[in-house]
Amino acid sequence: MIRQIGIPVDGQGLYPITDRVAPLLAACGRTEGLCTLFIRHTSASLLIQENYDASARIDLENWLNRLVPEGDALYTHTLEGPDDMPAHIKAALTATQLAIPFQRGSLLLGTWQGIYLWEHRHQAGTRQLVVHV
């Protein structure tokens, strides 16, 4: 089964999407297997990260923004704004696809793990996620 879902974003940040993905397992008719996620963009990424303490996500965002700052004089790809090239670099350093096993109809994530869409641009919009079970 393949599904495409739109994930609305309001700008940079980590958006929890576990609750958008998990229900699709029931629709596939299988009790175990592999759930593959793929984001159809070059300036956003996917991440499995702590879902308990939001400060961990804030620290990740701050660290990546320090590692890949906006306005670097080396960037030549600036047509779409000062956040575009840094967003491409951030996506290249992180993941655009994830594979998560499931059993008995549930994702086999750890106790404190959640799935996140990591938006690297400032602008709001909708990101497209492909889910293959």
Describe the protein's architecture and organization.
With 133 residues, the protein is of the alpha+beta class. The chain has a single domain, classed as Sandwich (Jelly Rolls), CATH 2.60.120. The protein has four helices and eight strands; from the N terminus they run E-E-H-H-E-E-H-H-E-E-E-E. The strands form two sheets. It has a five-stranded antiparallel sheet, with no helix packed on it. Strands 2-7-4 form a three-stranded antiparallel sheet. A hairpin with a 2-residue loop joins strand 5 and strand 6. The longest helix is centred in the middle third of the chain and has 14 residues. The N and C termini lie close together (5 Å). The relative contact order is 0.38. The model has no long low-confidence stretch (mean pLDDT 95).
Low-confidence stretches: none
CATH superfamily: YjbQ-like
Order of helices and strands: EEHHEEHHEEEE
Tell me the span between the first and last alpha carbons.
5 Å
Strand order within the widest sheet? 1-8-3-5-6
CATH class division: Mainly Beta
Concise account of the structure shown:
The protein is α+β, with helices and mostly antiparallel strands and 133 residues long. Helix content is 26%, strand content 38%. It is built from 4 helices and 8 strands.
Features:
133 residues; alpha+beta; Jelly Rolls; elongated
Topology:
Layout: E1 2-9, E2 13-16, H1 18-21, H2 23-28, E3 33-39, E4 44-50, H3 54-67, H4 84-93, E5 97-103, E6 106-107, E7 113-119, E8 125-132
Antiparallel strand pairs: 1-8, 2-7, 3-5, 3-8, 4-7, 5-6
